[in-house]
Amino acid sequence: MEVNLVVEGLKFMMVGMGIVFTFLVLLVICMNLMSRAINRYFPEPNQATIPKESSRAEQLKKVAAIAGAIHHNKRG
Predict the structure, then answer these.
(1) How far apart are CA 76 and CA 69, in angstroms?
(2) Residue 24 or 2, more confident
């Protein structure tokens, strides 16, 4: 009985590629199911609950604080 190593190698290659492909398909399916579950039970917050932009006065206070920190850092 003669064993053709090329044919045996091709068989092993196809089995290995089939296992990897099956694993990847199952991984994608599981990730989609988890994504759906998370979106269903933990939805994104509504726009009404997101805080609005800070007022002009608050923005100017932040700019002044940043400018003061930069000045202090460069001075010392």
Answers:
(1) 11
(2) 24
What lies within 8 Å, CB to CB, of 54 at 6+ separation is 62
* Cα 35 from Cα 40, distance rounded (Å): 8
Which residue type is seen at 32?
A: N
User: Which residue shows structure tokens 């053709």?
Assistant: 4
Residues 69, 63: Cα–Cα separation, whole Å: 10
Query: For the chain, which residues make up each domain, given as ranges?
Result: 5-75
Q: What pLDDT, on the 0 to 100 scale, is given for residue 56? A: 84
> How far is 31 from 24, CA to CA, in rounded Å?
10
Q: What is the pTM of this model?
A: 0.53
